[in-house]
# Entry
Amino acid sequence: MNNDTASTNSEDVAKSGNARQELFSFFKTLALFIAAAIVLRASVVEAFKIPSGSMIPALMIGDHLLITKLNYGFRLPFVKRTLWQWGMPKRGDIVVFTRKDDPNTLAEDESKVNIIKRVIGLPGDTVEVRGRTVLINNEPYNEPYEVRWEEGGRDHFGPVTVPADKVLLLGDNRDKSKDSRYWGDGPFLDSDLIKGKAQVIYWSWYSWDRIGKLVR
# Structure
């Protein structure tokens, strides 16, 4: 009887130990999975939802995008700036970024908001907007994508020369975009604040036909 009781107790202890090991192994795997997902989101690829119409018609409200993070540099989780930068965006790239809080925007802290615009001016470029015409280095820029001017456009912007390690950005829906032309702290964005490049629409509430469309 005593031997049976001791044997039962030993089996219970063994089962309890195995259960604790399995539980520990489960939480360890879960923690590693979460850590990998955080690093992947911060450094490789991230999903992004279009909240406004500033990039119509290239991007519609309700489009969900995947942006790639390694085009221009490497970022770490919870760090706002690029840790290692090895490239600059090209003119015409659609990029997601954060920026310093704009004193002209009282409703929200823009340093915590993801913004999406198109790169127009690169370091060394002199950019000017006259009516509906964008000039780069005093030459009209023939934009190879559709641009909207719904209300006639801002009469004049610039000329301004883009400093080193900065870019100038515009929205495609020019009269509905708060972009470099309107930023209260200056028209330029530090390039290391760019989080990534828009690549593909993986889902759209606007139209199913847009699913799988490459961002151009």
